[in-house]
Amino acid sequence: MATRGAKVERNSVSEQPHELKYEAKKEGTTAKKVEAAKKSAGTNKRSAVEKKLDGKK
Predict the structure, then answer these.
(1) Residue 57: closest CA among 32, 30, 36, 29
(2) Which residues, other chains included, contact 27 with Cβ-Cβ below 8 Å and sequence gap of 6+?
(3) What ranges does the record give for the region Disordered, renumbered to this chain (predicted)?
(4) Any residues with CB less than 8 A from the CB of 45 and at least 6 apart, and which?
(5) Whether 20 contacts 31, CB under 8 Å
(6) CA–CA dist 31, 56 (Å, integer)
(7) Which residues of 10-48 are buried (b: 16+ CB within 10 A; e: fewer)?
(8) Cα angle vertex 47, ends 57, 22, to 5°?
(9) CB within 10 Å: which end of the chain, N or C, has fewer?
(10) Taking Cα atoms as reference points, which of 27, 4, 26, 31 lies closest to residue 15?
(11) What is the CA radius of gyration of the chain?
């Protein structure tokens, strides 16, 4: 059972297309908007990105 890096992975949104699609589906938006929210937040922390997306709904 691999646990190395698992906590970090849950708390961030990477640039990988499947990560962006997952977050977009979860938030009911598009991958482009997730990417823009990530850039606007200035970080890849999931909580910060979701906070930015909540303001854009």
Answers:
(1) 29
(2) 34, 50, 53, 57
(3) 1-57
(4) 11, 12, 13
(5) yes
(6) 13
(7) eebbeeeeebbeebbeebebebebbbbbbeebeeeebeb
(8) 70
(9) N
(10) 31
(11) 11
Nearest to 13 by CA among 29, 2, 57, 1: 29
Spell out the residues 6+ positions from residue 56 whose beta carbon is closer than 8 angstroms to its own. 29, 33, 37
Q: CA 57 to CA 14: how far, in whole Å?
A: 21
Type of residue numbered 36: A
Query: In degrees to the nearest 10, what's the CA dihedral of 2, 7, 16, 25?
Result: 110
Query: pLDDT tens for residues 8-23?
Result: 678 899 899 999 999 9
